[in-house]
């Protein structure tokens, strides 16, 4: 089997399914002062055939044991384009 490329990013997932966070909230989260109503999650873009296995690996490697989820807007194609631009 060849190499499998995947991408992980941090995100904040407030309850109710919407996403809105201010710069002050983001800084508070980085300093450990973000309210409990905002759950920090990891989003994973990986091939479907290996998604569950990679998600379990990412969760185990994360010191904070954050949940790993899919986000339809965070795709491998999008991540590859962003890395190419950098």
Feature tags:
alpha+beta; 3 strands; 34% helix; globular
Mean pLDDT: 81
Q: H/E element string?
A: EHEHEH
Task: Briefly note the structural class of the backbone.
Answer: alpha+beta
Task: Tell me roughly what share of residues is in helical segments.
Answer: 25-40%
What form results from the Cα inertia axes? Answer: globular
User: How is the biggest beta sheet arranged?
Assistant: 3 strands, mixed
- DSSP summary: helix tally: 3
Radius of gyration: 14 Å
Number of domains: 1
Which strand order spans the largest sheet, edge to edge or round the barrel? 1-2-3
Low-confidence stretches: none
User: How would you describe the oligomerization state of the chains in this entry?
Assistant: single chain
User: What's the total count of β strands?
Assistant: 3
> Strand share of the residues?
15-25%
Distance between the termini: 29 Å
Structure report:
It is built from three helices and three strands. It has 86 residues and is of the alpha+beta class. It has one domain (7-85). A three-stranded mixed β-sheet has the order 1-2-3, covered by helices on one side. The model has no long low-confidence stretch (mean pLDDT 81).
Write a compact overview of the structure shown:
This protein has 86 residues and is an alpha+beta fold. The chain is built from three helices and three strands; from the N terminus they run E-H-E-H-E-H.
